[in-house]
What does this fold into?
Amino acid sequence: MLRASGGTFIKDQLGNRLLRPAHSGEFEAGLNTEFGNGRFTIEYNYSDKKTRDEIVQAPLLATTGFASQWRNIGALQSKSHELALGAQVINTRDMALQFNVTGSRVREYITDWPLPSQVFGTTGDWAGFQYGAGIRLGTMAGNKYVHNLDQLYLDPAKAAARGAGETYDPAKYEVNYDGYLVLKANRGTSAESAILLTACADASLKERACAAGEATTTRFFLGVSSPDFRLGFNTIFSYKRVAISTLLDWNYGGQITNVTAHWGVQDCASLICDQSAKPADQRISENFYGGLYNGAAASEAFVENANFLKLRELSVNYTMPHGQLQSIGLGRLLNEVRIGVIGRNLLTITKYKGFDPEVAPAADDPFKGRTEWFQYPPFRTITGFIEIAF
It folds into this structure.
């Protein structure tokens, strides 16, 4: 495929006639039981799914003349646990109350990756998703910044120059109001800047002190986009002809790369630059936040926790039976009428600073990773309905 660039065409993607669908195999086991004359139910399912020949846009060597090619590459293993509990607390002629709880825990790992371990995905360095054999799907890697002196001296070169009066003398540094270690002389000025962490990393990409002669890096573990677990709480209540149903969704764990905020700090158009609520002596210059842009490289400064509790759905309805319809002269035409309203995505409780913590990966990414990349957030909708039975 050719791509236009600067008025000329350049080679972009090399075609692949051998491309085929990915292949998946799954082992699944489950248990379903009830007790208390059917008032209580328990369902559990376990799944172990293996997928090979994933369809991946693989980079090519410069000698090929093309930038990339879609290929069948790598394998993925997914293990999931799902649990559902149900309880009929009240079940009489006029009143009913039922609680349902569903939960899931999913762990996905890349088991085969013939390409070098690398940042991959449609958003490139912005998202910083690290792909490699043995790495959990959704692992984010990128730049970190120094928040204390211990981190500063993980770099052997800095640790060697930490004496009094030397370049990295601890007396020259302090932590600013955003938690970054900065030069004390630049604190509160336009020259104030965060210090990029340089150290070594272990197999899990966590930072550590370097061994003798070991080269430092600036790419470290930033988080995992997949949640630790998800729980859903469904309550159904009815009294005579009125029925109310609610659905709460709790997402615990996982991180989001807020690229929308990252892009914004380039010109300090992001909320992170707003210092109006801070006392005058605690405000930090725009230059400091502009420095966090750092050439669009993935950064801990824009990775946020994705915990949320969401009122997924609330519905209220009233049923008019045939006898009631007869009393208002509609019994000959209608058998039953149900009138109600449904609200979806009504309330979200979260500390995430973006539009909504429930963001989806780019549509053409073969793997997944939550990234806010200027997508529209889920809409809040309120819908009324009338159901008529003749």
User: Anything to note?
Assistant: The radius of gyration is 28 Å. DSSP finds five helices and 25 strands in the chain.
